[in-house]
Amino acid sequence: MDAAQPVSDYPPTPRTTPTRKRDRARYDAATVHAVLDADFICHLGFVVDGAPVVLPTIYARVDDRLYLHGSTGSRPMRTAAGDGLPVCLTVTLPQGIVLARSALHHSVNYRSVVAHGTARQVTDPEEVSLAFAALIDHMLPGRAADCRPPTPKEQAMTTVLRLDLREVSAKIRSGGVNDDPEDMGLAHWAGLLPLARVRQAPVPDPAMAPGTALPDYLRAAAP
Amino acid sequence: MDAAQPVSDYPPTPRTTPTRKRDRARYDAATVHAVLDADFICHLGFVVDGAPVVLPTIYARVDDRLYLHGSTGSRPMRTAAGDGLPVCLTVTLPQGIVLARSALHHSVNYRSVVAHGTARQVTDPEEVSLAFAALIDHMLPGRAADCRPPTPKEQAMTTVLRLDLREVSAKIRSGGVNDDPEDMGLAHWAGLLPLARVRQAPVPDPAMAPGTALPDYLRAAAP
């Protein structure tokens, strides 16, 4: 509808085209990647015996790939190791509560990404090692190089999955209050209550050798 | 396994019994409700054409019931209005990153709730009104009484769903680092990086009448 053609690095599909509020959808890699890089916990949906299951789990993005991991023995991991596991992976960053004069126009500002696809087990040892490091660095950039890497035995306890970013979209609700004109004179407080996730001061393990320096990658207060 | 029998207000089922780390599971209403009351955004999973879909949406808890809402015309809402919509509703509160000396023992402290069941449309007008108010008060307690309530026409644009809490469990990972004994001497910083969601200063709508007082329910800084 706009004069400028929106960027669409990830071509929209029926599943990534909202039936309502299409103006909130984004398909450009920059937006999708920015949302994915701003968090490290996703909600992973899959189907078990015809019913939905949604579990929180950590993820990492490397280029156009997402990595997940889980215990080798768990049911979704075993399914993924076979024919692959159809998943819907969703990341949501709440950014504020929109307080309108009318109940109906209350809303939430957020950025989210929904990715559809089939998660498959990574078997190449180099890619497994890369994924392990990415999962740790996605939580805390710089950390993977500052801990003991997994041994082959430890790697064998864990299944690493890859989900290629193909059928994916971001959704963004931003800005202020959208009340109906006839409600604008109502005397209720209206506006935005911003929300943010913050990192608090690191708490050292009591068993750590006294005097161990706080690493640079932990000094940054902001997430 | 403990001497004291754990409280189990929501009897465990195969779907709410983890295959691993069972000690993290809780089935008492106090814990489940506390997690549900600490957030207002859930990830709702359902199945469309055999494939999983996970979308973020707001929810409210009233006793042993969860309420959700959505546009009357949307596909999941139409399904729910018919035979009901089998869902998995998940709420996750990240509480910190656990930085172990070994990559494998990195973890996340969190509290989560996973509820399975069939979401059904609420048709009783009184319960619909109660659900609307609960959805707003769950975001910000006290707000529902301080905005214009929905008109019958506005209510008709929205489908309200109810999910009874029956097959539900909480999971909690808390505490510190669990490194293997042979790694305890490694010189890597170890400990916890706490995470928290905070509310920032409210931002008034520029169109609001100057001098409109900030309501008491917005004065509390803590979420």
Automatic annotation (TrEMBL), chains A, B:
It comes from the Bacteria. SUPFAM superfamilies: FMN-binding split barrel (SSF50475). InterPro entries: Pyridox_Oxase-rel, Split_barrel_FMN-bd. Transmembrane segments: none annotated. Coiled coil: none annotated. Residues 1-24 are annotated as: Disordered. Gene3D superfamilies: Electron Transport, Fmn-binding Protein, Chain A. This is Nitroimidazol reductase NimA-like FMN-containing flavoprotein (Pyridoxamine 5'-phosphate oxidase superfamily).
